[in-house]
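[step 3/7] fold_predict: job queued, chain A
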Amino acid sequence: MKRKCFALTGWMLLLCPLAGFSQSDLKLWYTSPAQYFEETLVLGNGTMGATVFGGVDTETIYLNDITLWTGEPVNANMNPDAYKNIPAIRSALQREDYRAADSLQKKVQGKYSESYAPLGTVYIHFPHSENIEKYYRELDLSNALSRVSYRVNGVEYSREYFVSHPDKTMAFRLATNKKGSLNAEIFFKSLLKYKTQISGKEIRINGYAPVQSLPNYLGERKDNIVFDENRGTRFTTLIKAKNTDGIVIATDSSLIIRHATEVVVLVSEATSFNGFDKNPATNGKDNRQIAQQQMDKSAGQSYQQLKLNHTTDYRKFFNRVRLSLGKSEAPVLPTNERLLRYASGSEDKNLEVLYFQYGRYLLISSSRTPGVPANLQGLWNPYMRPPWSSNYTTNINLEENYWPAEVTNLSEMHSPLLSFIDHLSQTGKITAQTFFGCRGWTACHNSDIWAMSNPVGNGSGDPLWANWYMGGAWLSNHLWEHFLFTRDTTFLRTKAYKVMKGAAEFCLDWLVEDKNGNLITSPCTSPENHYVTPDGYHGATFYGGFADMAMIRSCLKQIIEAASILNIDGEFAQKAATALARLLPYRISKTGGLQEWYYDWDDEDPHHRHQSHLFGLYPGAEITPQFTPGLANAFRRTLDIKGDETTGWSKGWRINLWARLGDGNRAYKMFRELLRYVDPDGVKDSQHRGGGTYPNLFDAHPPFQIDGNFGGTAAIAEMLVQSHAGYIQLLPALPGSWSSGHVSGLRVRGGGEIALAWNNGEVVSFTLKSDVDNDFRIRIPDGWNKELINASGFKNVKTEGGYLIVALRKNETVCFLRKR
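[step 4/7] structure written:
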């Protein structure tokens, strides 16, 4: 690797490239077992998930498989005449009859999404007495290992757990320091239909998921859960015990371990899911064979080899990013106690680093299955009817899951979403035709593993959430962002462009003229928010929503630029450009904020959790304080009006918005609130409720939704480095509390990787590495002397205004150092 170092005003303590990083102790740890799901420690290999309670008398391990969902391939043509209702809705809106428009919208609805299903639970019963001492459990983020240890009557017991991606199995080791003192019974239960067989030292479970599961918010109905032995996804789970001493006894449903010193238990699972468009019962994968092959491969290796395979694979992703936010004086405490202390206002910079890296850990652990992205609960769900079906909610939540993917150097974890978007574009093409009478493709509020793209509600859903149509425009932004971060033109040409164009085609067909000749959408909703008309009507359906306008503007700009880069499709790009110029421009409301509705109406809830009309600031890149200061101030005013008290995922979004506005202290204030301690849902009479963070660092919507974790992780990166406005800016929103620190491995658009160090709030050194041949534009840090850069004599660096222009070849690295 080539390196060039430019000393601008003398040598600092740090050498180039940044060295000597020391990660804070990246462990979640506790002094008692989990009683509730929100206290557990979770493991995953991107497909298989394990939720570990760490119990003493009985260990409980929830198992999940990210491909185990209810249902079967969707009939996208479920409502072929739905589009015929669009003219009547538009007519009602032209008459300003919003009540009629809301009612008519229900005719533009289809089935509900299916649900992410729990696979089952492994129980391990230990005949321990109540004399338990020195209990400890942890999750080691550096190695993706969970451990439990304790002492009973002077005997030490330990367990270690991991879920391996290379070997596709879960492995755990039960051990004791006294020979022959390990006794346990292992058995399995599931909420699904299943049968158990015992063969030697192996439990074999075969079962199937329901063919239908209706959302939990519909209440109790006879058809909430429907099983059909001839339909639905099949699953197999194998549990094998490998003992070095003692004996293993098989019963009709369990394995009993007697007088052992150490036992290794392997768990293999597989489903018949064979793609979003394949029937899992009649055209599925051979789950039994796959599970057995995985088990045989793992059983032929030692525990230490399996562990080495796992940690080697995991570390190559996790170790890419290192972060220090400066010296911390916080005491050493269990994680739940640290959260409580932090919530009182105390400093704990290492907890903040832990939260950031935990988000990266969760993404690595839940997003490595092609075409099956992390869902609303990531990978970990114990419920038959989970909150909001644990589905893919595309009006913010699915997208927020992937905000940290590129910037925190986990681009590979982005690929399950990118391939899923391709699946959506196929079902979404039928949705565009039959529900809206448009070309191209779109997706609506909810989706599932079957790439369902229709509006949900079954004719009775509230348009407030059921009738939102911009999923294609928003999701295509992820394809473009992946290209911007990687500069992979092959990906853009062969995979992304066609899908992006389809989203743009839908937008062009869906737009109509308003009375002033502007192009708008009609009908539309602003996700899950109500307006109030001057005559007092609280409605959802209207026209010309500024959230729609922002997403369409972004979609059209991206397809125009993509066509230019690839030098193709000039005629379509011109059509997009013509429409782009006619889109309804932003409007400032009477309060000084950004208008959400076409007219300057009031919000039913001014503090509403959604802020979709601010899309152009984040995750979009249209609005910046530097280039659009007036609109940026309106966005700021909107956030001020909304306030800071909101749900977990919404806090994650607002932190990113404040970071884009360059207000590090406001972003940090909300970040601290995101880490506000919240008791597990099962705790009664709790004083700690609302949006925040559960004891195991899961995001509290509440209930648990993983999107807040990912939004918070992305926000920390956004406070340290930004690259969306055509240049790289270092420390764009650094809060005063992080006056000194260093970070390495963050990614920037253009195919680059950044490391930087700062002291007293100012950059003292930074390193830029490029994966491709490219010119990078870097805003010169405050206090740096650009004249000396010109004097450095390096031909691949020049200044232009307040920017460095750095020309790098592939795999070339440049380091800038500042002297005192």
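[step 5/7] annotate
Residues 8-23 have pLDDT under 50 and may be disordered.
The chain is about 30% helix and 25% strand.
exit 0
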